[in-house]
Batch of 4 targets.
Target 1
Amino acid sequence: MRSLLVISAGLSQPSSSRRLADMLAEATRAKISARGEGTQIDVIEIRDLAFELATAMTDRTASTPELARAQECIAQADGLIAVTPVFQGSYSGLFKMFFDTLKPHALDDLPTIIAATAGSSRHSLILDYALRPLFNQLHANIVPTGVFQAAEDLGTPEGERIVTRIERSAIQLADQMVAPRDRVSGIAGELEGLGGHSTVRLAKENFIPLGKLLNGYGD
């Protein structure tokens, strides 16, 4: 069973950010299921943590049990989907506050989809100029395909392309969470799940020094 954590920073009810997060989560669940694994999906609505986030940012000694539970979910996750609405051209303040409260290395090597929603497609570059640098700083293992969804694109050809991007990003996340069964493993070794996060282990047992391989050959 793989653990997939969904973090949504949507504020409204219903929330377009939560809707996109659910679409990404279900697509990822389907891709993991196709690899013969089950998926446990947990969702964190950051707006529900607003009070404790403000408390944690101003008083590090204060008790914040709901925030602590959210942080524990991250520690146990095999994959992460993080979705934020766009405010003033970037991610929301609550979204940033949540990740500011994490312990160092909390996201190290954690397979992650980044995604954002907005009213207009003019904000689409948020993925590359705001979200990707943030999660690179946190050392998450970001999948190549991020997803941006604008309200004005719904029901248009661009909206159909967004569905394709959701499928592609889900495949990439599933590939990192579960070793693909339809591909030949590379010489660097196989991808194994260790604890919560995944890591690449080199096949040292079969390593043969170059000098031994060349023994008996002339110059």
Target 2
Amino acid sequence: MIPIIDAHHHIWDLAANRHPWLQEEPPIPFRYGDYRALRRDYLPADYRRDAARQKVFATVYMEAEHDPADPLRETRWVHDIAAREGLPDAMAGAAFLDRADAAAVIRAQAAMPLVRSLRHKPKGVARPQDYDPAHRIPGSMRCPAWRAGYRHLADSGLHFELQAPWWHLPDALDLARDFPGTLIVLNHLGLPADRSPAGLAAWREAMARLSEAPNVRVKLSGCCVPGQPWAPALQAPVVLEAVRLFGAERCMVASNFPVDGLLASFDEVMGGMRAIIADLPEADQRRILYGTAAETYRIRTGDRLSP
């Protein structure tokens, strides 16, 4: 079994930290529907129990929408957890690019040993038919204030974690071209929730255009479809198309746990990913399962790849 670096997972302690979406009422609208099952602590022991059968040897923590008033508190907490528990090996922190403190927060995050990237989910429209590239929605990738904050990433050496639906990928392509010194890591395959022939064709076209930017990588993750079981037959069309477009050297697997645990087990997600890419050359499988993530998040593999 080829080892895995899980390039995107969360942990949280709801007694120690404030996560409004996990603690406040009413719950926010969520792409997977009812997420109340997530409103419990999820700590390294829980993650290790879920991942026990998949030979995960390193992980990357993704910011979990901690209290926006103090994004650095989440980062310090993750560093404390890593020092005690040996997990995660790297992390993506939070910054709010359209706020006045964006530059200061980016500098502070970059000074933390485990931080490799930052995420700020840009605003957008909820449906592809409402997308207009001429819009300058406040907080979007085309918002002047948001882009002013984004500009500071190049000096920090940090990557940007992009979570946006596929119809906003033209904005991401412009961002990648305007700021070629900043690596963009697209989360969750651009959220291809619509698996109809028309939906997949539109997603594929947007991904194909984005793949033209060399400073973009893709996480093969977060692709659960509400109401349908996680199965290789369901996910293979989007996973293999992303690999075809971007190449194995720009793709990496990730569990998105515990969030994807709402609809699938860790073994179903990661075992399914192994099954989907099983016919690719072994060198490509290794890139997807750990090599791209190790390079992207500067994780030293050392002797941890030994049988």
Target 3
Amino acid sequence: MRAPSGGNGGNAARLWPGIGGLAALVALWWLATGAGQAEGLAARFAPSATLASAAGLLRHPDLWLHLGVSLRRVLLGLAIALLAGVPLGLLVGGVRAVDAAVSPAFQFLRMISPLSWMPVVVMVLGVGDRPVLFLLAFAGLWPILLNTAAGVRQLDPRWILLARSLAATRAELLMRVVLPGVVGSVLTGLRLSIGIVWIVLVPAEMLGVNAGLGYFILDTRDRLAYSELLATVLVIGLLGFALDTLARWLHRWWVPS
């Protein structure tokens, strides 16, 4: 009988290829900026200058202020997307007539880039947080809605028949059978939404706001602080990676493989 492999060994086996890929990416970056011999603008984008700027930024209170504002917007946008997407997904997935009526419209709206709404949203909602939150919620809505609907369709019909045979009310059927059964699908949609919302966040914050990571990128450009600009881009990537890791952990915790 084959002995199960140790958890630490399996984690290490998965970790090292990832570290190697990141090292290769840094090496390509180093070569693309002149392998340490570049001058002028290219030198400002070199890994050494960027990492030095990143270390300085992490000690600067302004970065944490902008970071906190952006994270608050992301969480609010995702909360709005969840509050709208889960009920709509339950309805679309559970009622065929609703699915037939609204799915073409939803598919049409889903294919419109959220950023294309920026001029319209600013004219209607003005400048500030409201247009940014609308764009984030609009971007994050569709993965949650579609995955929730798919989760409802994949429910084992025997569980629903069993609940009905036990005279369960609609509310009991929803709370005890449907919602627990679709949580894994909702978390999958949430993970996809986090990636989309995080991508939309930065350009959305470049219009009509005075705080946030997108605003901070424009500020570094205007100050010609190019190494700080690239360092901010790295911080955005690291934060996005951390949010995606958290979403994956939540999914594994709820739906163990």
Target 4
Amino acid sequence: MRVDLFDFDLPAERIALRPARPRDAARLLVVDEGGMADHVVAELPAMLRPGDMLVFNDTRVIPAQLEGLRGEARIGATLHKRTGLRTWQAFLRNARRVRVGETIDFGHGVSATALDKAADGSVLLAFDGDEPVELLLERAGRMPLPPYIAQKRATDAADAEDYQTMFADAPGAVAAPTAALHFTPQLLAALDAAGIAHATLTLHVGAGTFLPVKAEDTDDHRMHAEWGRIDAATADRLNAVRSGGGRLIAVGTTSLRLLESAAGEDGIIRPFEGDTSIFITPGYRFRAIDGLMTNFHLPRSTLFMLVSALMGRERMQAAYAHAIESGYRFYSYGDSSLLMP
């Protein structure tokens, strides 16, 4: 399909630079067969049915943004995907000033050597020394805010908490699974009381999620790979919900992509561990999920293509037009939608 079919105009003032407080005070646009309705996230228990299950991503964002020097050249690095105990693919700012074999000094006793340059423009970095890389990043790194926020303001102390979900447990993401940022312990307790269960899986979100689609046709876009895991016990719980007549609602496109990667043609979700580069566009037949809670996405992005595949492109264009007209806040720190096909 033509990528320009997924374009829309978004006024800059609709991009949220801070989250709603409290988190579950964010607005929630419900889109289903009945049309569109405006709510707030705290009302979610009334939007679902007893026996339904919400599926969250428990990945934890690491301080994956680094600033350093190669000689006198300033180099910025955003870690993208872990490839080994001490190696990460990274997108570099000023990458032309770094050749294979050269070392970048990130300060605080942290340095890394460029091992290779990939076709997508990323660089394979090997962190020097024998300290765990996690400790090195805690010393030298900072929270990797999305580019559309980082271009407008600096990262600060509040982001260390704001850009982490209440489910964050497994370190490894370089971007938050932002749909879950709206949840609070109080909201989770209300969902439990309403008979709505929840489960977690792990997908380490990579910086590739922010890469623009440069191709003119979706068939020519190469999707980034991300590592995920669903264990056997979780797969059994998920399958039991659907076999019992409940619905699986993915909280975030990351949860959805992993669930769909783990499901067979029969709709059964199987244990999964490894990379997925699933690219969902209109025409895709969903196998694992019955609904999606997700924030509002960038024009021409793979994620707007995904929600268009779930709900229909024209319906999502109409929903986004309504959201823009009604003052919804967009992107990572913005408001949310509940999409029930």
